[in-house]
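Entry for the shared binder. Reason: the reviewer on the internal report wants the predicted structure included alongside the sequence.
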Amino acid sequence: MADVGAERLGMRLMGEVEELTLGELLASLHALINPSEQTTIFNVPELDALLFTPQPAPIQIPQQQQHHHHSDDDTWNHAHDARNEVPRPVPATVKQRSHPIIELISPPPAYHPSPAGKTALVHLLTTHAVLPSRLASVPLSGLTSAVVLIDPLHHFSVSYLASTLSSHIVSCFTAAGQDATSPDARREVIACVKQALEHVHIFRPSSWDNLLATLQSLEDYLFDKGKHGSMQRPVHALVIEDIDTFIPALRTASGSNAISTASALLTRRLDTLSATLSCAVVVTSRSATAAGFRPNIPLSWPTHMQLTRLAVRRVEVVPFAPGMSIVEAEAERGQRGEVVSRGRFEVWRVGGGGEKDGAVIRIGRGVVVEREDG
C-alpha cells in the first residue's frame, strides 16, 4: 500500500514539472546570475545609455518540492485525503531577457541629402563587437564576437572598418601609456585587425526576395563551420542597412497591403533569428517624412520585442547672422569649413526618457564619441 501511495505522489509531482527549451533555460540561468546587467550593444556608455532596458518576460520554473517525513500510513492518507493533500508547488518567476531591437533613423533625402551618420554608427558597433577584450595586456573594450551585416547599397566599407579598428587600438595603447608605433606593436595591431575582420559577415542582396532568402539561409550558414571561422564566437548583432531601399519595388508590387505584408514577414524572420542567435537586431533607414523619425518599413514590431529608435543627423552649422557683412562672413568661412570637415553627427533617442539627452559622434580616420574631457 505504501508503494502505491509513493507511486501516485511521484506521478503528481512529475505532472507539475514544466518543460523548457534550452534557450529559455539558459536565459533563465543568465538572468539569475546577472539580474541587473546593463544592455550593451555599442559598448560605448554614452550610446548604450540611450537604449531601452529590455523588460524581462516571466517564465515559470517549478520550485523543488519540500520533503516531509511520513510513516507508511501517512503517505497513503496524504495521497487520498483531500483535506491533507500535498500542496502544489508555487512556481518561481524567473526573468527571461529579450534581445534589443534598434532602429537608426535619419531625415529623408529631400530634407537632408548628405550622409547622416548611420553607417558610421554601424562601423563603431562592429569595431567594439569583433575586437578582443585586450591586446598585449592593453584593454580594448572588445566583445570578441561576430557581426552579420546585410548591406544592399554597399555603404559599409571594409577598408574604413579596418581604419576604425586600427585607430581604436592605437588610441587604447596611447591611453594605457604604451607605444603603438614600435615595429612589434604595429605587427600586433595589423594581426589583430586582420583577425577581427574575419568575423564580419557581409551579404549584399539586390532585391526584397533576395533579402528574405538571405535571412532564411543565415542559420545554415552560421552553423556550418566549413563556411567561416566564427563558430567559437557569439553573434553580437544582425544589422540590416538601408532597409528603405526596397520600398519603391514593394510599392509597385500587386496588392494594396504589400508593404504591411512585407513588414510582418520581415519582423517575424528577424524575431526568429534574434532568438535563435541570441543577438541584437539593428535596422537603418531614412525617415518616411520630415515631420518625425519613423521608417517606411518595418511598420511595427511584435509587442514582446523591445524597440529603441535612435535619430541620427549631421550637426548643422549655425547660419550667418542677419546683417553680417561680406568681410565678417569671409572671416568666419574658414572656421565653418573646419566644423563641417570634422564630420560631427548627433544621436538621440526618439521619445526621450534616456539617461542622457543624446551623444555626438565624430568621423575621421575612425569613429569616436565626443566627451567633455576630450
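Summary line for the report: The CA atoms of residues 228 and 251 lie 36 Å apart.
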